[in-house]
Description:
This protein is mainly β. It is built from no helices and 9 strands. Strands 1-9-8-7-6 form a 5-stranded antiparallel β-sheet, with no helix packed on it. A 4-stranded mixed β-sheet has the order 2-3-4-5, with no helix packed on it. The termini are close together.
Amino acid sequence: MDIIARRVADYEHLENPGDYIVYDEENVKQITFLCPCGCGDLGSVNINQSDPYCWKWNGDKDKPTTTPSIKQLSCGWHGYLTDGIFKTV
Length: 89
């Protein structure tokens, strides 16, 4: 199931599965999101283009793509964030 990722301003606006926050507008280091599966858990990916243990990001704050895939340990959701869409594996 695909869920459109919707960028919101802050935690108070995280309401729907796939809503996300971009931290530090000038130097993005993290994307935090409401799990796309609908469980209500928060997830996050740490962004660092030069660290092999962090996610890579396409630089688009409104239609982000991150690699590799994302695995939510709390609920088991596994998928990709590609062109602003959470895609379940």
